[in-house]
Amino acid sequence: MNRPLLTTDRLELWQPALRDLADLYHLTLDDETRRFLGGFTPSEADAFARLHRNAGSWALHGYGTFMVRLRDDERIIANCGIFRSHRGFGSDKGFDDVPEAGWIVHKDHWGQGVAREAMEASLAWFDSLHGRQRIACMIEEGHTASDALAVKLGFERYGRREVEDGAALVLYERQ
Q1: What does DSSP assign to residue 9?
Q2: Residue 64, SS3?
Q3: Structure pTM?
Q4: Which tens digits make up the pLDDT trace of 63-78?
Q5: Buried residues in 115-135 as b, exposed as e (16+ CB within 10 A)
Q6: Residue 27, Cβ neighbours under 10 Å: how many?
Q7: The domain 6-132 belongs to what CATH superfamily?
Q8: More confident residue, 131 or 95
Q9: Domain-by-domain residue ranges, the chain?
Q10: Is the per-residue pLDDT at 29 higher than 80?
């Protein structure tokens, strides 16, 4: 693919490609950017696995997260979209059997509406191609900016889950 799949006023949203590996790794290097991402330590192996999981979501389900760039800039500033994952929460939590929304934006671009712009485009694209359906998302408790964004995107809180590392996750859904 040699052009973005989606464009907005400021952004280009691309499907993942092998050329994105280094930028995806650098996206999560900053401690503040990772603050609410489960406390993992970034590595090239983690970036490789993240890129390939995302490419697998695209290949198997027809959707995944986008590599987000400013128009006419090659550097990835965010990774946003709807993807398929299996968190192991169980179907009784209504999370493992549905598409999941998520966004990671480098701290240099916080407060500029990048996540909202990318997610609004992603959700509109998803709905037009796959039909409006339930989408879940999870946000680490205390991440007020992402909580506010989820609500603006039409997600409603439906649960809470504590995970192995001790973090509490707020579960959201968009019907």
Answers
A1: S
A2: coil
A3: 0.87
A4: 999 999 999 888 889 9
A5: bbbbbbbbbebbeeeeeeeeb
A6: 24
A7: Gcn5-related N-acetyltransferase (GNAT) (3.40.630.30)
A8: 131
A9: 6-132
A10: no
